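Hypothesis: this fold can be encoded by more than one sequence.
Test: take the structure tokens below, design a sequence, compare later.
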């Protein structure tokens, strides 16, 4: 017969993981009583161990959901706190300490918490029972206790004493039953006394006749009756703290001698139910009956809940199976797939383009500094006359000066640290691409995975950085001494320079145009620019300290004017440079001293091509090979199931999906167990309970 209770308690515990509605649970025994009514003593006597928090302050601040599991084949006795991951705590004083700490963690201000502590005790000496210990009712609020404390305790207890739970109402014999807080509470929710067991403690403290009268009480009749106990171990043994597993035996012995000393009041003839052992039996019987009779309604509720979960699974999630592991694996696969695709789109040509445009900028700046560094007026032929190209600054190939100019520029280009620059450009581009892939992947909602992936990329890139830049630097070394440009390279370079300069010119003009609205129109800008020009030539003396402005213009306006003049001059110079490149002389590589723009562009192309060859081997291929492996390492097998679960639940959509599946699985499991339980029960009924 007891197998049933054990199985039902098991089901009850599974149902607790499903959570939510009270119809989805099997009954438990809820223990209520005033402070000092002897509630803890009764519970400890049943368990056979001292394990509950003790102290002057109110120590029970959270419900303790206590599951007792009878283990007939084992001599071990231990407790477990499943929520804390604390397994096999064999020392009961350590259980007591943990309970005290958990209770004390509830702040004074909060006074009581509805969050239950789950504790399971395994022993061959306990019956299969499911009990809930609640904070004791208080009569008067203590000095340091908040005023609402009484109210809060009462609310918490009310939550638990609802049907179908059994109420174990503890009252002390030395207090008038009419004043018993436990009975008063029970009457409110169970007026006909159908699911309340009365326990009268401290029978030894009142006259036996009075004790017997209480047990026969007709004023508060309870269908399940009253049980009288003396659950205090005799003081004489207190000097040596007894082996606590003897607690029940000691109490039972003590009770026996007390009750048999008063046969008239408590003997078999008296018709009263006394003793902790009897109480235990009563609890077992009542719990099993109550659970059995709840079985049908609970299983109906579960079936309904399961139908809802199944429906949600179908409609919302298309019956798509999902587990945290499969979600991670799928996400990782999809990410690796996207990465693979990227590797096919980003290779040598793309690296070359990136690197070349970086070098283009360097070349532009370099030439601007060396060749186009004089005021525009000195360089410009009359009215920027395109037909007048012969007037452009001449560069005589035989002039040592122009030779030196070009050699110095070339050397500045080859020695600017191409190895470092090229590696940085490609590495940052790879990292940026990984970030982009991440943002478009399902990892976007997962901070943990995002960090792992970004770190995987940067680790590999950092590891390769120095050797790659050294390699690249080494292999461009020959260009530091000599650069040969053939006709084809020359004409390609020339075309390219025109494109680059055109783009530069566009940017410049756009920037200039954008200043107009900022100063209040084109005319205004022209006025300021004219003023700045005159001031620069010395035609006007600018007064003021520059901050307050001059010539009737504010300082801010003047700053804009100066910026505009700079942009206009720059645009002029770029136009000049374009003219120079387009000039007839520049069609021939022999005129390289005349056309440094073209020569340096061709040189930059050579540098980029050579660098890319080595970047490809040293950085790109390595990265493409190692990155997916590094991902597997960081997000694959070595993650613990908890980490995988945590990862999956970071995404609220996935969390909900997983919860629905889990709920469905739990409910299915419970129903299965219930069905087999009912079969067992049916068999019991046919053959009668085995002894
Ligand atoms: P709780 O506050 O309701 O948990 O009460 P306790 O179990 O801590 O008991 C309060 C006090 O009453 C303690 O000092 C116990 O030793 C004592 N006590 C509990 N049960 C009995 C009993 O049956 N007889 C006697 N004489 N004292 C008891």
């Amino acid at each position: 017969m007891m197998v049933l209770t054990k199985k039902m308690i098991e089901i009850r515990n599974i149902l607790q993981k499903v959570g939510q509605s009270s119809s989805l649970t099997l009954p438990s025994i809820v223990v209520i009583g005033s402070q000092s009514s002897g509630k803890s003593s009764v519970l400890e006597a049943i368990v056979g161990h001292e394990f509950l928090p003790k102290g002057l302050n109110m120590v029970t601040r959270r419900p303790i959901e206590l599951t007792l599991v009878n283990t007939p084949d084992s001599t071990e006795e231990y407790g477990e706190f499943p929520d804390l991951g604390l397994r096999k705590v064999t020392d009961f004083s350590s259980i007591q300490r943990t309970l005290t700490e958990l209770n004390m963690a509830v702040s004074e201000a909060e006074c009581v918490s509805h969050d239950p502590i789950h504790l399971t005790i395994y022993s061959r000496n306990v019956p299969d029972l499911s009990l809930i210990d609640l904070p004791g009712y208080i009569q008067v609020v203590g000095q340091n206790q908040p005023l609402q404390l009484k109210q809060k305790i009462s609310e918490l207890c009310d939550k638990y004493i609802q049907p179908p739970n059994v109420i174990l109402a503890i009252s002390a014999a030395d207090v008038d039953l009419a004043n018993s807080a436990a009975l008063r509470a029970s009457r409110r929710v169970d007026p006909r006394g159908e699911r309340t067991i009365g326990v009268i403690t401290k029978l030894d403290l009142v006259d036996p006749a009075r004790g017997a009268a209480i047990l026969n009480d007709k004023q508060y009749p309870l269908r399940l009756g009253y049980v009288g106990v003396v659950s205090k171990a005799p003081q004489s043994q207190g000097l040596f703290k007894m082996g606590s597993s003897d607690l029940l035996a000691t109490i039972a012995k003590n009770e026996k001698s007390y009750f048999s000393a008063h046969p008239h009041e408590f003997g078999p003839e008296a018709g009263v139910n006394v003793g902790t052992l009897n109480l235990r039996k009563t609890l077992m019987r009542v719990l099993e009956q109550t659970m059995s009779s709840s079985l049908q309604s609970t299983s109906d509720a579960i079936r309904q809940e399961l139908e809802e979960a199944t429906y949600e699974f179908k409609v919302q999630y298309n019956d798509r199976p999902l587990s945290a592991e499969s979600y991670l694996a799928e996400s990782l696969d999809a990410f690796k797939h996207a990465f693979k695709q990227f590797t096919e789109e980003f290779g040598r040509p793309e690296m070359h383009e990136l690197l070349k445009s970086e070098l283009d900028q360097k070349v532009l700046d370099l030439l601007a500094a060396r060749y186009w560094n004089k005021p525009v007026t000195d360089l410009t032929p009359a009215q920027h006359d395109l037909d007048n190209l012969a007037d452009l600054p001449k560069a005589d190939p035989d002039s040592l000066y122009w030779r030196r100019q070009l050699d110095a520029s070339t050397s500045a280009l080859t020695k600017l640290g191409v190895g470092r620059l090229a590696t940085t450009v490609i590495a940052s581009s790879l990292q940026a691409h990984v970030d982009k892939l991440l943002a478009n992947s399902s990892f976007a909602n997962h901070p943990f995975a995002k960090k792992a992936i970004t770190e995987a990329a940067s680790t590999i890139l950092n590891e390769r950085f120095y050797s790659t830049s050294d390699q690249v630097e080494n292999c461009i070394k020959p260009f530091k001494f000599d650069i040969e440009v053939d006709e084809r390279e020359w004409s390609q370079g020339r075309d390219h320079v025109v494109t680059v300069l055109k783009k530069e010119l566009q940017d410049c003009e756009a920037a200039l145009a954008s200043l107009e609205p900022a100063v209040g129109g084109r005319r205004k800008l022209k006025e300021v620019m004219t003023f700045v020009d005159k001031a620069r030539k010395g035609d006007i003396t600018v007064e003021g300290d520059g901050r307050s402005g001059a010539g009737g213009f504010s300082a801010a306006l003047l700053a804009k004017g100066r910026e505009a003049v700079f942009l206009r001059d720059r645009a002029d110079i770029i136009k000049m440079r374009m003219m120079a490149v387009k000039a007839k002389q520049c069609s021939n590589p022999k005129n390289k001293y005349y056309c440094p723009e073209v020569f340096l562009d061709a040189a930059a192309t050579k540098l980029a091509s050579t660098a890319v060859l080595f970047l490809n081997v040293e950085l790109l291929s390595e990265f493409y090979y190692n990155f997916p492996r590094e991902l597997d390492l960081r997000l694959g097998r070595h993650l613990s199931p908890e980490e995988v679960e945590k990862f999956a639940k970071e995404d609220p959509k996935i969390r909900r999906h997983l919860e629905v599946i889990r709920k469905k699985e739990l409910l299915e499991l419970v129903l299965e167990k219930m069905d087999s339980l009912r079969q067992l029960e049916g068999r019991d009924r046919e053959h009668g309970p085995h002894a």
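The longest strand covers residues 64-70. The beta strands are 29-33, 64-70, 78-81, 86-89, 117-123, 129-133, 166-172, 196-201, 226-228, 273-274.
Hypothesis status: open.
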